[in-house]
Fold:
Amino acid sequence: GGCVLIGQSIINMQSGGGVSRWSGMAMALFLATGIVAAAPLLGSVPVSALVGVMLLVCQSTFSWSSLRLLNKIPKLDAAVIALVSIVTVQKDLAAAVLAGTICSALGFVYKQSTALTATYTVDPSSNVKTYKV
Structure:
């Protein structure tokens, strides 16, 4: 649902129709009318054609300039982006979010554990250890 709404909104804005609420209401009305009136015809549309339309929407709405940022972000973040993208394609978005969250959490824990240092001193008279983190 979300990809379609974002794609429709971006296409609406690029067409100059995003200045009022009428454009969104008109789009919803035309879409509802098309689905109800042409339901038998839409049922015969091949899935591959729908995939093609979805890929065109993705191609036109993706910010290709953001790929240049991959060299500037931490490697863990780039790995999480790649992991989430692959799991989304192979499984579903819920599994990808779970995998990305776990990977990010483990990476954060590892980074914090390597940044911590602890020293201790021993008081010779009482044989008490004092730790400083």
